[in-house]
Amino acid sequence: MLQINNLSNTVGDKPILKGLSLSINAGEVHAIMGPNGAGKSTLAYTLGGRPGYEVTGGEVTFDGQDLLALAPHERAAAGLFLGFQYPVEIPGVSNLQFLRESLNSQRRVRGEEPLSGAEFIKLAKEKAALLGLDMEMLKRPVNVGFSGGEKKRAEMVQMGILDPRLAILDETDSGLDIDALKIVGAGINAIMRKPDKAVLLITHYQRLLDYVKPDFVHVLSKGRIIKTGGPELALELEREGYAEVVA
């Protein structure tokens, strides 16, 4: 599904990713861990197409397409979803309005009919219930006045509505208490644990992986993946830290 070959980039003329390679197949969950400044969020933003992240080498294909040649909205319409560590607030725009426009924009690009208001509300209620989010929250401006946990649950509702093929989740566990972590983990499993979908989880800690069991765990350091293993690698990192692996 996603093939990254020798990817390098710069941010503000500073090299961050330095020859990173990674392959993700449909049906797989991959977790990336690593120390601060390793390039984890940079990888997510580069795949999502964030401006200012200049690719200087390598290639990325998504379902056979040259991902780097696509604009951010084209990547989203192709089935890529980027979950942010710090979801932004959009005053004056309700969640329902934002989500309906986002979904129908993607459907039009794919040649599909847009959902009617009634069809969309039914879908939104279903996905909100899955994440334990009150529908009244979705009537409010995007993330305005939300707690950290509410922002992350709202973002998972967004993921459920858009129904991507590949979800790249950048520290989704950040700011979540124990109960919210369980709900978000269950939501990721229900939405994305399917044979035709895949997940790339970026996290500092093993705790989210208790709920979303990864097939592979990768350690990222200084812009490269330096070690890959199974779920046991996350437990090892939790016990011993990154120093020995990085050394």
UniProtKB/TrEMBL annotation:
Keyword set, alphabetical order: ATP-binding, Nucleotide-binding
Pfam family, one: ABC_tran
GO molecular function: ATP binding; ATP hydrolysis activity
Stretches assigned to the ABC transporter domain: 2-247
InterPro entries in alphabetical order: AAA+_ATPase, ABC_transporter-like_ATP-bd, FeS-cluster_ATPase_SufC, P-loop_NTPase
SMART domains per the UniProt record, alphabetical: AAA
Domain of life: Bacteria
Keyword Nucleotide-binding listed: yes
Family recorded in the similarity comment: Belongs to the ABC transporter superfamily. Ycf16 family.
Protein name: Fe-S cluster assembly ATPase SufC
Protein's organism: Sphingobium fluviale
